[in-house]
Amino acid sequence: MTTFSYITFLATLTIFISTSTVRSCPASDRAALLAFKAALHEPYLGIFNSWTGTDCCHNWYGVSCDMETKRVADINLRGESEDPIFQKAGRSGYMTGSISPSVCKLERLSSLTISDWKGISGPIPACITSLPFLRIIDLIGNRISGEIPADIGRLERMTVLNIADNLVTGRIPRSLTNLSSLMHLDLRNNRIWGPLPLDFGRLRMLSRALLSRNYISGTIPDSISKIYRLADLDLSLNKLSGEIPASLGKMAVLATLNLDSNKLSGKIPDSLFNSAIGNLNLSKNSFQGYLPDVFGPRSYFTVLDLSYNNFRGPIPKSLSQASFIGHMDLSHNRLCGRIPAGPPFDHLEASSFAYNACLCGKPLGACQ
């Protein structure tokens, strides 16, 4: 080989090595992923079998990298998936272990999805709040315990926080209301206790707030009505008390309001019955008094459930003026009098009116 050829060869090799280095994930990201993997045990599908070689950006199952920086941007591991690896095995996923704090070394991480593995336990690493680019945390369907990191509000880019169906305890951190970009909050079916932050309404971009099946107490903050994008609010199966803020009925896009199985009391605000809410469940509380006779053409309910309360008096005749009522349940109250004729009453079953003081007429027995 001539001197010129040798120099050309070295130059080409240098360019190749440099290009390969740029196209590969950094060694620090690869080491962080391997430490993350070491804390988990997946015995059936072999999803980590592809985590070999030096380039974690290439064909590592569930890992994707930023095209420009070549840093790990997404971890997407779902225990319930239509991926061929699940179809071939004929089963959903099962994984044990914990989420290693090594994940916090992935400095450009944008989304962390480790969902529906059923057996992953331990806490959410507190250091996760140091990841400035993190937008999505989805840990639904595991056995994660401990508390939501106190300084979760540092994650300014966060749009999705989903830790439903786990064993998370403690209060909702006050800093959570700093998540000004948050659009989807799902804390269902955990062991979270204490009150909702009074300034919950600071989450102005929120469209879904799902917090059912916890031990949340106190009153419903009036500030929630300031979340003008909120379409779905589920606070059912908690320990909330006090009255419903009338301002909830004035929200422009709130379509679903589930407050059943709490300790709410007082009168139901008239505004709820002439609002954008189409799915209203207030059952199994301690509401009392007369049902407001305020229904009209703006009243459109696919579901209206007021059962298991202490309502008394007659069924409001104005219910006949509602534009639509699909399912209505007034059972287990103290209502009395004749059930109005015509829609929506002509398509409802007797169970919708059962266990009241003295209701009569179709679909119950004739009035005396």
From TrEMBL:
Keywords: Cell wall, Leucine-rich repeat, Membrane, Repeat, Secreted, Signal
Subcellular location: Membrane; Secreted, Cell wall
UniProt cross-references to InterPro entries, sorted A to Z: DNA_repair-toleration, Leu-rich_rpt, LRR_dom_sf, LRR_N_plant-typ
Domain Leucine-rich repeat-containing N-terminal plant-type: 27-66
Keyword Repressor part of the UniProt annotation: no
GO CC entries: membrane
Keyword Secreted attributed: yes
Main localization (coarse): membrane
Segment forming the signal sequence: 1-24
Family: Belongs to the polygalacturonase-inhibiting protein family.
PANTHER family listed in its UniProt record: DNA DAMAGE-REPAIR/TOLERATION PROTEIN DRT100, LEUCINE-RICH REPEAT (LRR) FAMILY PROTEIN
Protein name, per record: DNA damage-repair/toleration protein DRT100-like
